[in-house]
Structures are given as structure tokens and as C-alpha cells.
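User: For my dataset I need records formatted as: sequence, then C-alpha cells, nothing else. Please produce one.
Assistant:
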Amino acid sequence: MSHPSPKILNRFEVVFSVFSLIHLSSGILPVILTQGASEGDGIDITAFDLSLIAKVSLLIYFCAFVLLALRWKKVINVVTEGKFIGLFVCFVFISCFWSIAPDKTFRFGVYGIGSTMVGLYLATRYTIKEQINILTWTFATIIILSVLFAVGAPKYGYMLSGIYPDAIRGIYTHKNLMGMMSAFATVIFFLKAIDTKHRSWIFWLLFMSSVVVTILCKSTTSLGNMLIMLTLCMSYRIFRWNYEVLVSTILGILILGVSGLLFFFNFIGTDAFFEAIGKDPTLSTRTEIWAQVWEAIQLKPWLGYGSAAFWDGLEGPSKYVELAVRAKVAYAHNGFLDILLGIGFIGMSLFLISFFSNVIKSLLFLRKTNSVEGFWPILFLNYIILTNLTEGTLAALDNIFWVLYSTITFSLIAANKNKFFDTQLELEKKQY
């Protein structure tokens, strides 16, 4: 029986990884299947047949399972150490037993397990350096296709009608999602540009393109997140200093930060700040939504309503939120609140244990490495926090951010188990 050529399999896996990440970022298919519908243009997107998106996702999960099976020994060695992320995903799945919409929660749980498998596959197949290369190809494709959509097919590439006219959305259905991806892309391209000696201009060009796309999205949040992340790219260098200088620097930053906040709230105020950046104090009614959501959480605080079960328009408990804010609301616009709605404080505790464990491992990994990839885990965890303050990428486990969170989690476990993990992977590939 003949076996596929190693080169063919390697190329397939790269293409599969890039394609999977683009699809799980909600790129291309949703905007095409909804025929370029925009928020506020009166078109009901639930009238479109979007089943193809789910079918492609299930195909990706199946392929990831097969590829994991090919390296089952390595997979078992890593996955057995991921107790808290495993418990969290299992808790999401079993929430169908107390969910107010069990069928919906069951499907969501399946997608959550599938996305976690994709993340596990990336972590056990590629080194962290190679993961950055895969992400570079992924986001370069996203940015280039988004520009092509905007130039060649403005019906799809722009939000030409509705409440956000002329805001670029590229291969996505909404400008905020495009902004989230392009802001994230700037970090990837920045890391590649400063790490590449030859032809670094390519990555600087991609970096500048991502900055321009982020600006054209007209998303103040994405622009702010981009600036914060680029600042963190430089700031995290202090964690490689010796402990005496590190502690003194952190204390100095904390003192300046607290002093700055006190000055801001006492002499400037939030209203003046939001007016300066062109935003209303309610953050486009987000604060009103959060207040209503918090009241709903109090009714089922420990186990929640079941993952993905709360938001069902006027048919479910979400109707009280929509009636209170007098608008359609699809999610809490805060990932942490959505987790609480879905699986309560018990589920949130499992996630927080996993998250802060990753933060500690990321900082240790940063101190132990001298390469650019040492910055990647902690930067990604920071971006997760930033994006989930006003959006909901955490609670939706069937997306690129959960895949990458799983990848980071299992990669850090692998690196912690064996400090020569990356080197071993390289040797195995050469032998293969």
C-alpha cells in the first residue's frame, strides 16, 4: 500500500491550517451567502441558507481528528496535561442537560470540541515559530482578499447601506469583525518584520496595509486595541530584564498608571473622553445591554442558561434585554458576560483557572526565550482580554480565537513538559 509523499502531506497540512483559520474567523462564506447584507439595511439574514458554513466546519473538525490520530502518542502526551481547558470544554458540552435550549447547546458543544481539536492539532503539529508563520500566511491572505473584495466587489467589501455606510468590512459581514482581524494582523506582521533579516519589507508592507484597513473599518475599538497591542509588543521586553530592574520598573509603571487614572477621573471625566473620540458614554448602548445582562445572570448564577441558549431574539429570555434597550441584541458584547450567561460562575471559574495558568506560563516562556516567538503567547492572551471587553469572541467557541487559545494552551503545556519540545519536532520532521 502506497503512502502519500511527506512533501505533499506537509503542503496539504499548511493549506488545511490556513484555510481552517480563515473559515473559523467567519471569513468569505458568511458575507457571500448573505449576499452582502449590512446591519441596519432591513434585510433579515436568518432568511438565508447558511448551512454550508456548518458543513465546512464539520469537515474541518473531521480532518483535524484524522490528523491528530496520525500522531496519537504525542497528542495523548500533551492533552492529558490540559485538565482545565478540558474540563471547561466538557462543562460547555454537558450544559445541554440543564440548558433552556438543549438542542442548540448540544450543537454548540460539538463545535466547541471540534475547534479545540483544531487548536490541539496546531499545537502538536507545529512549533510556536511555525505557528506564527502559519498565522502570517493566514492574515496575509485575509488582508489581501479583503482589499480585493473592497476594490473589486464593493457590495461585499463595504457596508454600503445600513448604519455604517462606507466602512470597509473586507471578507467579513461586519466592520467590527474586520477591524478585530486587521488589528490582530498588525501584531503578527510586526513580529515577523522585526524577526526577518531578508525581505523584511514584505512584512512591513503587510503591517502598513493592516493599519490602513483598521483605520478604514471605522472601528474606534479596533484602532485602540491595535495601538495598545503595538505598545505591549515593545513593553513586554522588560520581562527579560533581571529581577531587580524588572520589579522596580513594574512598580513604577503601576504608580504612574494609578496616578494617571486618578487624574483622569477627577479632572477629565469619562464623558469628556468619549466625546473626544467621537463615542457616546454608553458605548453604542453596550453599557445598557450589560446592565440588563447582569440582571439575567443573577437569576441563574451558578450554572447559567446553557451555552449559546440565552440569545434567541424575542423567543427566549433575551427578549427582556431587547425590550429594555429597544434594539435587536445577538450577544452581550462582552465575552465574560456571555460565559456567565451560558455556564455560570462555575464554568467561568474553570476558564479563569485555565487563563491565568496560561498567563503565568507565558511570562515564564517569555523570560526563558530570546526569540520573537517568546512574545506571542502573552500578546495573544492580552488581545483576548481586549477584544472581549466590548465583543464576544470567548463565549463563541467555534471561532479562530478559541482555536488559537487552545493552540497556545497546549503549546505551553508541551513546552513546559519538555524544554526541548520545539527541537524534537524539528528533528522528527527531518526524519519523516
